[in-house]
């Protein structure tokens, strides 16, 4: 069964797993892949500290999902932990099937202790690296894993075939109980503690204490090319990633092929994936793989570096590795330059179908504020908002409320633009401009084309924000520093080969413009993928209306949908 294929390092073993994962009628036909996910608490030790953590099947990180484009996937999740659980299959479009998307109280109520739910979905028109994670509380601190979608049988990669491949999942580690300190911080009205370490495949590496059993090592052969499937599963940190002495060739982001380009390091935000080719073409030795944060705003973060080892075959472990020269932690110029290099492949087989005509233009400001909290330490607590509205999570799944026409759960009056325009990135503003709280969504007509400009503001402070849209990919047609100018900036858009992805970073003190076609009916969450900001209310959702006929309407809910 699927358990025999967990945490495979190399694709040679990956292919051997497929016979155990599903029932394949012929190589050209789609398969059914079945997995059992048991939510279990297990004692795990890192940094000389042992603690119980929530896991899937006792693994940290969790098992990798291996599928092919066109497969049907059934993942039965049984919750044996003390927390309610839901799991999001990050980046899978779930056409008409929001019931399988996973965010708690958006497309489902959570799976309660002792209960099960089967996520049943098709992998259609997608191939590459995605990932899955818990989508309730801060449980994704330990509940996460990779999704590897291979192309259809007989379809090659649009880049040189690698010799082997490996998944690299970047994360964070806290020595304490994450849910306990988050609850304590919320009660005090303060941000919770930063993590104690970053991790590579769950392991901090040799720059931390008690590293001997907790260092990821990738053995390579001289002259071979390897495909690294890199995932940022960190809760709150954008990360630089590199390998000492080796260049990386970017070939894919968020399961969409890109025009290849070579770089010494990549920048990857929480929620994003990046596939790179790396050639083992240096002197045989041991080289550090490293990841450390990028932060160009005056915000406290965990600035520690996680390391693994890129080790040539036959080299003894006594050889000391060398560290890569990663960009400085506040290197804004590198970040902007790197993201500008990302472009869609835009070939006949992999076209960039950028919407050229826009039916609906949206402009959302990102802001922080403080609201009165008499029981909090300083009498206030932090809030975050879009268009000055801090999102309040309901107690019923938004998709259920939409599908069954339940009244009083949400309103569809989210404003298309801020009600009070101001100099968004000018001098710091301490006022919150009267931030309101509510469950307010935006209704979008089926198959309409949407342009959304996300504008950072200096309400309390400017900061970079990685935004993720569920149920869709989108094209990043423009980005800039300062205030978006609707009269001048659209003329600079890239409408030929902009990068297509599902999670995009809004630069510190700047803006990002995205376009997509609203052809997937349902209720789709959009939020900052920094868990801290999401908890403060930096989120909303789109209600995409049904189209004509049953083929363009939300599917009926499954019978085992968790009750609210």
UniProtKB/TrEMBL annotation:
Q: Name one GO molecular function term.
A: hydroquinone:oxygen oxidoreductase activity
Gene Ontology terms: cellular component: apoplast
What is the annotated signal peptide range for this record?
1-30
InterPro entries, per the entry:
Cu-oxidase-like_N (IPR011707), Cu-oxidase_2nd (IPR001117), Cu-oxidase_C (IPR011706), Cu-oxidase_fam (IPR045087), Cu_oxidase_CS (IPR033138), Cu_oxidase_Cu_BS (IPR002355), Cupredoxin (IPR008972), CuRO_1_LCC (IPR034288)
UniProt KW Iron keyword: no
**Group of enzyme by EC:** oxidoreductase
> Is the Signal keyword given for this protein?
yes
Where is the protein localized? Secreted, Extracellular space, Apoplast
This entry's Enzyme Commission designation comes to 1.10.3.2
Gene Ontology biological process? lignin catabolic process
Alphabetical keyword list? Apoplast, Copper, Glycoprotein, Lignin degradation, Metal-binding, Oxidoreductase, Repeat, Secreted, Signal
Lineage: superkingdom: Eukaryota
Q: Which reaction does it catalyse?
A: 4 hydroquinone + O2 = 4 benzosemiquinone + 2 H2O
| Necessary cofactors | Cu cation
Q: Which residues form the Plastocyanin-like domain?
A: 39-153, 168-314, 414-546
A Pfam family this protein belongs to?
Cu-oxidase_3
Per UniProt, the cofactor note for this protein states: Binds 4 Cu cations per monomer.
Give the UniProt family note: Belongs to the multicopper oxidase family.
Q: Function, please?
A: Lignin degradation and detoxification of lignin-derived products.
* Name the record gives this protein: Laccase
Q: What is the originating organism of this protein?
A: Prunus armeniaca
């Amino acid at each position: 069964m699927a358990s025999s294929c967990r945490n495979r390092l190399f694709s040679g073993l990956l292919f051997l797993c497929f016979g155990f994962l599903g029932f394949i009628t012929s190589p050209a036909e789609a398969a059914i892949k079945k997995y059992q996910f048991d939510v279990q608490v297990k004692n795990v030790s890192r940094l000389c500290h042992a603690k119980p953590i929530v896991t899937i099947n006792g693994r940290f990180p969790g098992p990798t999902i291996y599928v092919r484009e066109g497969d049907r996937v059934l993942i039965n999740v049984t919750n044996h932990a003390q927390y309610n659980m839901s799991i999001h299959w990050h980046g899978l479009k779930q056409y008409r099937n929001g019931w399988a998307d996973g965010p708690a109280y958006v497309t489902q109520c959570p799976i309660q202790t002792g209960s099960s739910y089967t996520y049943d979905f098709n992998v259609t028109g997608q191939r590459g690296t995605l990932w899955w994670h818990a989508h309730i509380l801060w449980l994704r601190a330990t509940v996460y894993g990779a999704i590897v979608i291979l192309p259809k049988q007989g379809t090659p990669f649009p880049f040189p075939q690698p010799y082997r491949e490996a998944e690299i999942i970047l994360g964070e580690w806290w020595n304490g109980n994450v849910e306990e300190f988050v609850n304590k911080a919320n009660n005090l009205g303060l941000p919770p503690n930063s993590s104690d370490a970053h991790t590579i495949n769950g392991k901090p590496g040799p720059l931390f204490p008690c590293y001997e059993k907790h260092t990821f090592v990738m053995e390579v052969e001289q002259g071979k090319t390897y495909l690294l499937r890199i995932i940022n599963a960190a809760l709150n940190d954008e990360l630089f990633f590199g390998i000492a002495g080796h260049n990386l060739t970017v070939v894919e982001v968020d399961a969409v092929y890109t025009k290849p380009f070579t770089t010494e390091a990549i920048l990857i935000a929480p929620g994003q994936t990046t596939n790179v080719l790396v050639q083992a073409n240096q002197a045989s030795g041991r080289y550090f793989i490293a990841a450390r944060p990028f932060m160009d705003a005056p915000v406290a973060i965990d600035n520690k570096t996680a390391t693994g080892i890129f080790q040539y075959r036959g080299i003894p472990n006594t050889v000391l590795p060398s560290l890569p020269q990663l960009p400085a932690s506040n290197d804004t110029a590198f970040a902007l330059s790197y993201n500008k290099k990302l472009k869609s492949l835009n070939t006949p087989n992999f076209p960039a179908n950028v919407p050229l005509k826009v039916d609906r233009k949206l402009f959302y400001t990102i802001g922080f504020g403080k609201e009165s909290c008499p029981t909090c330490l300083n009498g206030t607590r932090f809030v975050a908002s879009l268009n000055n509205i801090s999102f309040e999570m309901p107690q019923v799944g938004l998709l259920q409320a939409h599908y069954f026409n339940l009244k009083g759960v949400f309103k569809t009056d989210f404003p298309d633009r801020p009600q009070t325009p101001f100099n968004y990135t000018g001098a710091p503003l301490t006022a919150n401009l009267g931030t309101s709280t509510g469950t307010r969504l935006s209704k979008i007509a089926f198959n309409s084309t949407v342009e959304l400009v996300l504008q950072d503001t200096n309400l309390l402070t400017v900061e970079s924000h990685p935004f993720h849209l569920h149920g869709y990919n989108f094209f990043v047609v423009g980005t800039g520093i300062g205030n978006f100018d609707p009269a001048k900036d659209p003329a600079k858009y890239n409408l030929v080969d902009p990068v297509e992805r599902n999670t995009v970073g809004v630069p510190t003190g700047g803006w990002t413009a995205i376009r997509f076609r609203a052809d997937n009916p349902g209720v789709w969450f959009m939020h900052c993928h920094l868990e801290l900001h999401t908890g403060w209310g930096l989120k909303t959702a789109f209600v995409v209306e049904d189209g004509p006929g049953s083929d363009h309407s939300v599917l009926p809910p499954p019978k085992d949908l968790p009750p609210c």
